[in-house]
Design goal:
Radius of gyration: 26 Å
CATH architecture of the largest domain: 3-Layer(aba) Sandwich
Keywords: DNA-binding, Repressor, Transcription, Transcription regulation
Distance between the termini: 80 Å
Helix content: 40-55%
Protein name: LacI family DNA-binding transcriptional regulator
Mean pLDDT: 90
Shape: elongated
Number of helices: 12
Structural class: alpha/beta
Number of domains: 3
Oligomer: single chain
InterPro entries: HTH_LacI, Lambda_DNA-bd_dom_sf, Peripla_BP_I, SBP_2_dom
Order of helices and strands: HHHHEHEHEHEEHEHEHEHEEHEE
GO molecular function: DNA binding
Largest sheet: 6 strands, parallel
């Protein structure tokens, strides 16, 4: 009976390559460049490892190419139509350009974001797209120290180019639409309530500014207690509205479809009064058009935003400029 071939060891490969075991180990685990091992030796070790059937680390195999063609993206959530669409279209557009996309979800956790960026760099990603990152400048510093291009998407940073939606203009337009509809319903006028988001978040801050500007243009003062910036949570949005009691609002600006879930849950508790509620949402979901009382939604132009990202990627710009992309206002009235 023929016995199976024994798996080669690093020492076997070292003898065949005429190199030290530590040098072979560095080639196989992808750290050969840091040790200033020559490319010719690295390629010889890789060739012999392949011939001998030795399993090779992905990082090490990248030395066979001058470029990895890997582009990485971090996103905060998968279960959100906006971020889900960004991930899907980014993957399609990257592949059409001969690039290999790697996408990971970091759940709005700054430590997970940093860890993901570090791992993508270790796999020799040529560019990292930081989408909705909570600390984009920390990621940009890491990438720049490693010589990796980085571009911010959705939320801007100060140390790398950014592509964001025109949150201010779209929020102002949506607010004006809701106010106009509320004007036609006697007894439902006055200031709207702003629901969801975090005031420390750039996008929320710009949307709130647009919301307030639309009120100011009508001479309407917005009381501080009308700003229910409860974060991106359906439960917290519903709880904040429930605490308003009988004097509940009849006009709402909802800052995301995540918060909208909580709004709809709260709305179902209003009984007959729910028929008078009017709201609009800064986020887009086709199902939203079927919700009673929904005046309109803001759709962020994902294809156009990603076009800008790939243009920046191709130009390898070092500028930290922020490009603003107009949104699409979907009206349901």
């Amino acid at each position: 009976m023929e016995t199976s071939r024994k798996k080669p060891t690093i020492y076997d490969l070292a003898g065949l390559a005429g190199a030290s075991p530590s040098a072979v180990s560095s080639v196989l685990n992808g750290t050969w460049q840091k040790r200033r091992i020559s490319r010719s030796l690295a390629e010889r070790v890789m060739r012999i490892a392949g011939e001998e059937g030795y399993a090779v680390n992905v990082q090490a195999s990248l030395l066979r190419r001058e470029k990895s063609n890997i582009v990485g993206m971090i996103i905060p959530k998968y279960d959100n139509r906006y971020f889900g669409r960004i991930a899907e279209e980014f993957e399609t557009m990257a592949r059409a350009r001969g690039l290999f996309p790697v996408i990971t979800c970091t759940r709005r956790d700054p430590e997970l974001e940093f860890e993901a960026a570090r791992e993508l760099i270790s796999y020799q990603a040529e560019c990292l797209i930081a989408t909705g990152a909570t600390d984009p400048d920390r990621i940009a510093s890491l990438c720049k120290s490693a010589g990796v291009q980085v571009i911010n998407l959705d939320l801007p940073g100060a140390l790398a180019p950014s592509v964001v939606s025109d949150n201010f203009t779209a929020a102002q337009q949506l607010t004006e639409l809701i106010l106009h509809k509320c004007d036609s319903d006697p007894g439902s006028g006055g200031a709207l309530h702003f629901v969801g988001g975090r005031l420390s978040d750039h996008n929320t801050a710009m949307r709130l500014r647009g919301f307030l500007t639309a009120h100011e243009s009508r001479g309407i003062a917005v009381p501080e207690h009308h700003i229910l910036a409860t974060g991106y949570s359906a439960d917290r949005a519903a709880s904040a509205l429930e605490r308003l009691g009988p004097a509940h609002p009849l006009g709402l600006f909802v800052n995301s479809t995540i918060s909208l879930e909580g709004v709809i849950r709260w709305r179902s508790s209003l009984g007959a009064a729910q028929s008078r509620l009017r709201f609009g949402c800064f986020d887009w979901d086709p199902f939203g058009s079927f919700l009673p009382g929904n005046i309109g939604m803001v759709e962020q132009d994902v294809p156009r935003m990603l076009d800008r990202v790939f243009e920046l990627m191709a130009s390898r710009t070092l500028s930290s400029e922020c490009q603003t992309v107009p949104c699409i206002l979907r009206k349901f009235v």
